[in-house]
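Subject: design request, 170 residues
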């Protein structure tokens, strides 16, 4: 009878673990991190595609730095996901015609990138509160802060490009 109770206890424990909210929260977090990994790669690719259309060297340098940071973010997320046992391709495959899916003109493209960075910032902000893993919280806070800084840089670049557009029209 003792063995039967041990088996029953073990099965009950496994069943409780399968139904526990911690598993659901972990799954949601892994899904969110995977989506953030994809977004970081997509945004870096969009910045690289936009660079040739940006007329000013100082803006191109800032945007290149931003794209490099986004690529680093993707690498950090991929490393963390591997720690959770999630195996993924090393890079996002570029779908055919992805350049055409972006708005035309660098100003519109950068506005589109800004909107994606705002969504990514919000994702990181929410994910910080969804985990009790202090090292993951620290990583997410760093990524969130970088995205906030990127938004500020993009807004500044957009304002300067907008002023230039208005100056050349008038």
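Subject: RE: design request

Done. Sequence follows.
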């Amino acid at each position: 009878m003792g063995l039967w109770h041990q088996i029953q206890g073990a099965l009950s424990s496994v069943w409780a673990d399968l139904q526990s909210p911690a598993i659901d929260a972990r799954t949601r977090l892994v899904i969110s991190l995977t989506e953030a990994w994809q977004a970081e790669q997509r945004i870096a690719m969009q910045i690289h595609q936009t660079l040739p259309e940006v007329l000013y060297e100082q803006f191109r340098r800032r945007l290149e730095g931003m794209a490099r940071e986004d690529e680093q973010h993707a690498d950090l997320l991929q490393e963390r996901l591997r720690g959770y046992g999630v195996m993924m391709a090393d890079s996002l495959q570029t779908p055919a015609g992805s350049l055409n899916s972006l708005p035309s003109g660098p100003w519109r493209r950068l506005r589109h990138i800004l909107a994606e960075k705002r969504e990514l910032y919000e994702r990181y902000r929410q994910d910080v509160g969804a985990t009790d893993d202090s090292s993951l919280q620290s990583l997410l806070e760093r990524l969130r802060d970088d995205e906030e800084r990127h938004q500020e840089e993009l807004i500044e670049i957009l304002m300067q490009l907008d002023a230039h557009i208005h100056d050349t029209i008038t």
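Residues 166-170 have pLDDT under 50 and may be disordered.
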